[in-house]
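Q: Please design a sequence for this.
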């Protein structure tokens, strides 16, 4: 399957649908796929006919297992591309004027979680925890949390729960997510496609100005912070991956500098 077929883009009525189509690789994303997702998001946002954007994936087991780690291993250049385009995708989802709805039918890990967190509305399949959960495993696999992995959980869940996810790498099932009112809708798996489409179609019936301005106003209110948060992650990531390890004093001074720069 070519990279072109790994991300499907379809416009039907007032809805643009972006589908991650790599079920044999747990819907993990390489940088070419991320680039295609980003291009599709920008195209949908510019298209005058489109009012809502739906992101989903194929297969039953995984929504997305995150970034393609095999592409990163042994290749600093590929790792840099993944970070660059992963950030661009998540930043676009947050800042586009059109509402982005994500449909989650299975396990989401790493970047799969970040897409879910960045989206405006989230529709889940009602499945047991062993078949559907969110997990941020970065600290456990020695991957520095970037491309929104720290601030997106903070915005979505608050400080305490964000810390729990990032430090414990625990799996979070649908029941736990419902307890904190995270899902917008939850449907039986066999009705997920149909009910999600019905839900998104209802959104497209709302007055365009109201639909776009609500998201845009919220984005503008937080835009300065959003971009700064991405920059902060990238700045810390460079130091975290630096082969020349820093002393505790050097780290302390670096962190003090961050407080001054980003406060």
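A: Design:
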């Amino acid at each position: 399957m070519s990279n072109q077929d790994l991300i499907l883009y379809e416009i039907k009525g007032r809805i643009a649908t972006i589908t991650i189509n790599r079920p044999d690789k747990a819907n993990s994303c390489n940088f070419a796929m991320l680039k295609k997702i980003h291009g599709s998001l920008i195209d949908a946002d510019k298209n005058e006919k489109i009012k809502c954007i739906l992101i989903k994936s194929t297969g039953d087991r995984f929504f997305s297992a995150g970034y393609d780690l095999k592409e990163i291993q042994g290749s600093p250049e590929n790792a840099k591309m993944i970070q660059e385009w992963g950030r661009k995708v998540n930043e676009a989802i947050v800042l586009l004027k059109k509402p982005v709805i994500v449909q989650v039918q299975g396990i989401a890990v790493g970047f799969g979680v970040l897409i879910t967190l960045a989206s405006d509305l989230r529709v889940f399949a009602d499945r047991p925890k062993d078949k559907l959960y969110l997990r941020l495993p970065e600290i456990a696999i020695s991957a520095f949390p970037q491309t929104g992995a720290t601030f997106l959980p903070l915005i979505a869940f608050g400080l305490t729960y964000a810390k729990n996810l990032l430090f414990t790498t625990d799996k979070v099932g649908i029941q736990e997510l419902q307890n904190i009112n995270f899902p917008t809708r939850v449907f039986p798996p066999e009705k997920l496609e149909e009910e999600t489409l019905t839900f998104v179609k209802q959104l497209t019936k709302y007055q365009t100005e109201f639909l776009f301005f609500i998201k845009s106003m919220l984005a503008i209110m937080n835009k300065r912070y959003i971009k700064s948060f991405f920059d902060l992650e990238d700045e810390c990531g460079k130091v975290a991956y630096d082969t020349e390890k820093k002393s505790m004093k050097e780290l302390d001074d670096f962190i003090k500098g961050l407080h001054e720069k980003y406060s």
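Q: Thanks. Anything notable?
A: Residues 19 and 96 are 18 Å apart (CA to CA). The radius of gyration is 18 Å.
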